[in-house]
Amino acid sequence: MTRSSETESSGTQPSDDRDGRAKRPKRDLAPDVARPADAIDGGSGDDGRGPGVQETSLGFIGWLRFGWRQLTSMRTALLLLLLVAIAAIPGSLVPQRSSDPNGVTQYFQDNPDLAPVLDWFQLFDVYSSVWFSAIYLLLFVSLIGCIIPRTKHHWQALRARPPRTPARLGRLAGYTERTVVGDPEAVVADATLILKRLGYRVERYEAKGQPSVSAERGYWRETGNLIFHTALVGILVAVGIGGGFGFAGQRVLVEGQSFVNTLQAYDSFNPGRFVDTNSLDAYRLGLEQLDVVYETENQGAIGQPTDFTAHVDVQQPGGETEDGIVKVNGPLRTNGTDVYLLGNGYAPTVEITAPDGTVVFDDSTPFLPQSAELTSVGVLKVPDGLDEQLGLICFFYPTQDELASGAFTSTYPDLVYPMLTCNVYQGDLGLDDGVPTSVYELDTSDLEQLTGGDTGVDSIELMPGESAELPNGLGTIGFVDASGGDVAATGDYSNSVKRFASFDIHRDPSQGWVLVFAILVIAGLVLSLFVPRRRVWVKAVPGEDGTVTVQYAGLARGEDPTLEGAVASLADKHAGAYEPAGPPSVE
Amino acid sequence: MNLDDYSLIAVYSAMAVYALAFIAYAFDLATRSTPAPATAERELVGAASVGRVAAKPRIEASRVDSAGLDTPASRATRPTGNRSGKFVAIGTSLTVIAWALHVTADVLRGLAAGRVPFANMYEFALTGTLMITTVYLIVVFAVRQYDLRFLGTFITGLVLVFLGVATVNFYVPISPLPPALQSVWLVIHIFVATSAVGLLALGFALSIVQLLQSHREVLLAEGKAVKLRFLASLPNAETLENLAYRLNVVGFIFWTFTLIAGAVWAERAWGRYWGWDTKEVWTFIIWVVYAGYIHARATRGWRGSRSSWLAIIGFTTVLFNFTVVNLFFKGLHAYSGL
Ligand code: HEM
């Protein structure tokens, strides 16, 4: 069945179909798909032009050719594919710097001896490692070496005539014959018409007084295959080059804050190689409000967030302002950038007043969430305005409760009974040393602790709207009610603390291209796997008594499970229009 | 009792009926020994190739047969292998019943949650196994040319084990869809992925049988004794390989779509379409292994058993991705809800 193509093509005949010089009728059966020599329907595999022959006669060039032929062979492509699969595995076992930098740090702490060894093998950067790149680059070189000759060849095939009808059809797939009464020429003309309507490209032939039609269809199969493989190259190129033109930046905004899309305004920023960081589109993005909805009815899932919606306003460089929404799974696309909502939490507003009444700190500080119930931790730094610098490590509990151990915890992520607790440290915060410090960390090693811990002084505990004295008469600290006094009036805390959102702002001009190529990949795949490429022949053999024996046969070009059925139904349709001459005979 | 309780009852009922179907199918395999007439011819063709002259006249007949003269009617006869075909029919009927219960369970779970039942490991398993049975039944009823019900033992066994483990170990009460999963892409991505798994599962089963069958054919050719007599009633190795290929190829296309849909969704949810997250890595590995399989089928020297092994490795990676990667690997796709 489908094997017949193999039998025909991989026989002993000296097939030169790659050069398009196939002349002898018999060779017409050899598929003209210019596939690597070891592809099953490649046709030119056993043609005696083996590498050994060339090598002895051509020396160095011969070796080069030999190497190239090896690299672009099906077997190599297959092995490289399997190698890529294997090489991708370690990246899922060991944390990767690109996707999980904290995991890598952790790994180094947990495995101080092993980690450097793994690092030497680039196992924390598998997908940009030398060895992984080498494998996929080789694969793509092989791929390109495959695509080019096949494209050339297919281009020729698209314009070539269907090949001469084989002298003997009897050995081919779906062979069947019908004896009818009629004129051989007319019989073939009829068959030609039917085949044309079925989408075949047809060619009339005549040999030994037997007219025949040779028909071929399914050129889209090879076209699809080439589209598929070329689109893979397209994806690689788009990713490789396009990545250089993009950037990714992060920025945290508290409700009411805004920032302008410039390099300086980002908390962190990773530009691609070709990005001019001075020419970003200077639009302004402001966070008006962040709405978070928690599950309140389903007993098993109370407190689970069900919706995050950031209401933002965008002021274009030109000046006009428009409102927008950023949700998880719903980025805001503006000014060639995509704005994603990736994190959120509380940003308690704290005011610290010096003993003389001057306000030395008044800010809403984003606190890092520590648990699903949003127990959060934050650091306040007061560098100026007091005799000595002051640092505070604070915890925020949106719904505070006390554990049996006496420690505080939050039992619900929304603002039901919010509580802020702070420990105060005094001393040099190290801000002036020129060493960059994280806003989320306080190095307490050189500081004097004034509250909490072993100091014997209670930590400061505040609810929104409350204030307290700092120890040692340093001043006062107030937890500002962000709702503007609702708490005092109604006891409703639900708006008493501001939230923050962390936004990722990306620009990736290549991603549209990648999508286009991905769609081509699917389209090419479907074409190349489902379009049957086949040849069909109908030959009229004149009999003695005015009858004609019509022979039908097909040849599959690749997987073609329906070929025989197609030949049979062609025979039925074609011969059915004629008056039968006796019972249909078999061979 | 709420809808979810009814869903669980349906799950347990489906499991019970799957178990019965499995037993019936297993009985079928155990009692298959005499080749049915249609397959006897193929048998002889195989034997003829090693030179049994006696088979000659039959070969002629069968060659004409395979050359396309067989009428659509003769194609439609479905040789069942064992003399009565009773057990295989019972097994299939039971599978249909189990499938109906399984659908009920899945739909009730979705109704109870007010969303698609694709949110945690239990629901993935519930829907994924449902798709495996669905694909099996579709293929069995759609492929008229061959009787593929011999795969029933494997399919009902696989579904039973996964459904059982998922229900006993991973059951979680209904919870709302976290914002990260609230997307049409969840529906598209998971639906296509589970369909792909169903197709690849069948391809996997056929590839295993192909290996057994080709082993048996080698033994027969060498005139040695063969065990596993039920194999005599199944299609020959080459046919099995072609069938496996067709299923795997469709599965591969679905998987390609899964991968692309996942990338589109990742772009919306995480701001990048590809980041080598563990789950992405394994989706990619599966894809590449099956691409290798397709190449193997087109490479001289790799057709046949070697490519069957690749299909088997491919489905092993699919199972690995669904079990070990979900349960033990850390990554962004931590929605298993455990
Ligand atoms: C990035 C690496 C590659 C991937 C992912 C890949 C994938 C695929 C897939 C999925 C198919 C089946 C669909 C179709 O027929 O279009 C296929 C077919 C094919 N590929 Fe590749 N390929 C790669 C590289 C290569 C290379 C390097 C060669 C040449 C040596 C090659 C030659 C072929 C041939 C000849 C077929 C047709 C097989 C058939 O007729 O069944 N491919 N490839």
What report would you give on this structure?
The complex is a heterodimer of chains A (587) and B (338). With 587 residues, chain A is of the alpha+beta class. In chain A, the strands form 6 sheets. Chain A has a 6-stranded antiparallel sheet with strand order 2-3-25-26-1-27, with helices on both faces. In chain A, strands 14, 15, 16, 19, 20 and 21 form a 6-stranded antiparallel sheet that branches. The longest helix of chain A has 30 residues. Chain A is elongated. The N terminus of chain A is likely disordered. Chain B is built from 11 helices and no strands. By secondary structure, chain B is mainly alpha-helical. The longest helix of chain B is centred in the middle third of the chain and has 38 residues. The radius of gyration of chain B is 22 Å and the shape is globular. Chains A and B meet through helix 3, helix 4, strand 1, strand 8 and strand 11 of A and helix 3, helix 9 and helix 10 of B. Protoporphyrin IX containing FE sits at the interface of chains A and B.
Give a quick precis of the structure.
The complex is a heterodimer of chains A (587) and B (338). With 587 residues, chain A is of the alpha+beta class.
Characteristics of this structure?
heterodimer, A: 6-stranded antiparallel β-sheet, disordered N terminus, B: 338 residues, 11 helices, globular
